[in-house]
Specification:
810 residues, mainly alpha, three-stranded antiparallel β-sheet, 62% helix, elongated, transferase, repeat
């Protein structure tokens, strides 16, 4: 035990450093009882460990004691310390011999058949020697020893594998030669395997070893080339179950691996994109091109696309200006522009001007066709986000993407390029025409350039579905503004109209987008264009439409995404034949043969879609207007001789099956009679609909029963029995739209011709007020009708009126 400066004994252990070679007493510090590392000599010739004697002197001073020699207890005149170089060298030589002998024993113990305890002791000795004696490290790290430790990774014992990983980390630290030996064969693959197969502390040891190995640039590619290595490391960096040390070491390892471009690409593939973006921003031109090219190949989620656009969007736009790198840049921009958020970032960063310039430029250094297609795709991606492109300049003279000259250039480019670019540019126009603020500009450019004919011709394309679909979408978008021109072009050709019908009637079990858009396009064309209806009728289009409607109703063809649009389009197309009933007997025959009145009535009540109810109600109105012309008036038998002489003996003949409204033989199938089809209740139900566009046609269909020449009183009773009076009055009172008010005033005037109803409603002040408002503020014809209605309820005397008495017709 060592003495303190006051002469007492400390509790310092006297255990010597274990050794195999003979140890000399001169090697031992009298204070620490350990082999000295830095021996120094006092003036009296006594030798101590430097750190220990300095501590002794300090304690003497702090305790107010004279500085004494720990051995002789005599006061020292000076405290100078002289390094004992010879003794230090001798100790180091002894320690080297001693450690070499330990390593020889360790090597003899490092084999898989040895006991676990012996192997663990051998591994500990190797670690201790490597940690404590830097001089011996060069000798420790010999190929044989490193390979023996590496073999221990194959042990069946978790503990041995864990200690072997720790030992290898100590062995390879700062030693390139040892790292190279560890990297031989499948050792790195084995270490990587431990990242997922070992218990937690084994994973931590494996990560620590990989971190040391990754400090060698030569081994970075080796580690990255092991299948799954980077994926596992990336997973560890985001793990919430690993300890902090493991996560940090995994992150540092990946940072080291970033020196290899291939590793950076793998990291990007596995969700660690930042290293790739950093090289894209700060790498050499070759590296930037490589990273941009790979970025264009990655599958990115929307959040990542947004981050990429913010981080390197401007860099990619700059690379577009380099002839050698613009292909890679365009590929990356194409990838990230498909998300609305990232597309907006790119617009704000200034992508559109160079993009448009490259698309339109013809001359030296112009974009190859392949890259023009990519540019067109990027533009289509961006346009389809619905941005306000009328506010984003794209040209030197402050033109925007919807400026007429820019749109005309797009149309010109469409006519002079191949199908792939044509399809993308048509998608651009689809995007622009989907925005209410820009569709008028596009329509104007199409109209002024006469491009409508060439656009319609794309409907005939059979070998490029995307091109044809884009063309049909564009035609559908512009149809509300160019319906007459479209109808004229389709009416004047054979192929395009038949192709549209052919697309709609394709035999499929799933409804396609092509079918839905083609049906929507035909549905938008003017329904009173008799020439177009004739073409459709002659081509058998309506039979095909009916077939598709029936199949959808039976559930034999489906398509959740497009079924609604498709069915709405089909019903509207079919309804157009009801506008031709007064012009063509063939149309009447077709409606009878296919029982269209019954079909529209079923559609009216079977579907809650507003557009289907609206189209069906309109069709029923048109059919019902024709009922009076199709009703069969029975021939009455001639009066008998007595009756002809004595008229007082006559009785009106009774004919069974007569319609109370049309006073003849009616049916839903042959004369389209709404009464015989029991349609009144169903139409009345629609009067409470929240959509005015449904209420209007339902009201119009009911009003056909109140026309001149029909039994209006019976019709009113029928409507009242169906609880239709209140909804009709509500339409009048609510005054939602002018069209609804006009229709409601007309119907109310007809209803008020029934004295009992007029007497009852005359007491309703709100009804009177609504009629007075119409009398004062409506159009001229409606004022006249409102005046007559007010006369029915005695609000205006019959002998005076503002307007001359007229028959109030619809």
């Amino acid at each position: 035990m060592a003495a303190s400066c006051d002469g007492s004994q400390s509790d310092q252990s006297s255990t010597f450093e274990p050794g195999i070679d003979n140890i000399y007493e001169a090697f031992i510090c009298p204070l620490t009882k350990q082999v000295m590392q830095d021996p120094v000599t006092l003036e009296n010739g006594q030798t101590f460990e430097r750190e220990a004697i300095e501590k002794w002197f300090k304690e003497c001073v702090q305790n107010g004691k004279p500085v004494l020699c720990p051995i002789t207890s005599k006061q020292l005149s000076i405290t100078d310390l002289s390094p004992s170089i010879a003794l230090r060298d001798t100790i180091e030589e002894w320690r080297a011999r001693n450690d070499c002998m330990k390593l020889d024993i360790a090597r003899q113990s490092l084999y898989l058949g040895n006991s676990e305890a012996n192997i663990l002791l051998a591994l500990k000795n190797v670690r201790d020697i490597c940690r404590n004696i830097r001089l011996i490290k060069r000798r420790v790290r010999n190929p044989q020893l490193v390979r023996l430790v590496t073999d221990m990774l194959k042990s069946t014992s978790h503990e041995v594998r864990y200690k072997a990983l720790q030992t290898l980390r100590v062995v390879v630290e700062g030693d390139e030669e040892s790292k190279a030996i560890v990297a031989e064969g499948d050792t790195v693959r084995t270490i990587v395997k431990f990242l997922s197969k070992e218990p937690r502390r084994g994973r931590e040891a494996a990560v620590s070893l990989l971190f040391e190995l990754s400090k060698s640039e030569l081994l970075c590619e080796k580690i990255g080339s092991v299948h799954g290595a980077i994926l596992l490391l990336v997973g560890l960096t985001s793990s919430k179950s690993e300890n902090v040390s493991t996560v940090e070491k995994a992150d540092l390892t990946l940072t080291n691996l970033e020196r290899s471009e291939e590793n950076v690409r793998q990291m990007a593939s596995n969700g660690r994109l930042q290293p790739l973006l950093a090289k894209l921003l700060g790498g050499s031109p070759e590296t930037k091109a490589s990273m941009a090219s790979y970025l264009g190949e990655l599958a990115l989620n929307n959040d990542v696309k947004f981050n990429v656009a913010q981080t390197v969007g401007s860099c990619l736009i700059d690379l577009m200006r380099s002839r050698d790198m613009r292909g890679a840049a365009l590929g990356a921009l194409n990838k990230i522009s498909s998300f609305e958020g990232s597309a907006k970032v790119l617009i704000g960063t200034g992508l559109l001007p160079p993009l448009i310039k490259d698309l339109f430029y013809v001359g030296p250094n112009q974009l190859p066709i392949r890259l023009k297609e990519v540019s067109a795709t990027i533009l289509a991606n961006i346009v389809n986000i619905g941005y306000e492109f009328d506010k984003v300049p794209v040209g030197a003279h402050h033109q925007t993407l919807v400026s007429e000259d820019v749109v005309e250039n797009l149309l010109l480019l469409i006519s002079n390029t191949g199908p792939e670019i044509q399809g993308k540019l048509l998608e651009v126009l689809v995007g622009l025409t989907s925005c209410p603020n820009s569709v008028i500009n596009v329509v104007s450019a199409i109209r002024n350039s006469g491009a409508i004919i060439s656009l319609v011709q794309f409907v005939e394309v059979h070998d490029n579905d995307d091109l044809r679909l884009a063309a049909i979408k564009l035609l559908h978008n512009i149809s509300p503004h160019m319906s007459e021109e479209l109808a004229s072009v389709l009416r004047g050709t054979v192929g395009q109209l038949r192709n549209l019908v052919g697309i709609i009637s394709e035999s499929t079990t799933t409804i396609t987008e092509d079918q839905a858009v083609a049906a929507a396009l035909l549905a938008e064309l003017p329904e009173r264009d008799w020439g177009l209806t004739q073409r459709l009728l002659g081509d058998g289009a309506f039979e095909k439409i009916i077939s598709k409607i029936v199949l959808i109703r039976q559930g034999e063809i489906r398509g959740k995404r497009f079924e609604r649009t498709f069915l709405e389009g089909l019903v509207k197309i079919l309804a157009r034949i009801t506008f031709a009933l007064t012009k063509e007997a063939q149309a009447v025959s077709f409606c009878r043969e296919n029982n269209l009145a019954s079909l529209f009535l079923d559609l009216l009540q079977s579907y809650s879609q507003d557009n289907i109810q609206m189209a069906s109600a309109i069709a029923l109105e048109n059919l019902s207007l024709e009922t009076k012309n199709l009703t069969v008036i029975p021939e009455l038998p001639p009066p008998s001789y007595c009756v002809s002489i004595f008229s007082c003996l006559s009785k009106p003949p009774v004919v069974l099956g007569m319609c109370k409204i049309h006073q003849g033989i009616c049916s839903l199938r042959d004369s389209f009679c709404l009464v015989e089809g029991q349609a009144v209740d169903k139409l009345v139900d629609l009067l409470d609909h929240e959509n005015d566009k449904v209420v209007g046609p339902a009201l119009a269909a009911l009003s056909t029963l109140l026309e001149d020449g029909l039994e209006v009183e019976n019709a009113v009773k029928l409507i009242v029995e169906a609880d239709g009076l209140t909804p009709i009055l509500n339409v009048l009172l609510e005054n939602r739209t002018e069209n609804l008010r006009i229709r409601a005033v007309w119907m109310v005037e007809r209803i008020l011709r029934i004295e009992d109803i007029a007497r009852e409603l005359g007491e309703e002040q709100n009804v009177t007020a609504a009629l007075v408002d119409a009398f004062q503020n409506a159009d001229f014809k409606t004022k006249q009708i409102a005046e007559n209605a007010l006369r029915h309820i005695d609000k205006i005397p019959n002998f005076s009126g503002i307007f001359a008495p007229t028959l109030a017709n619809k």
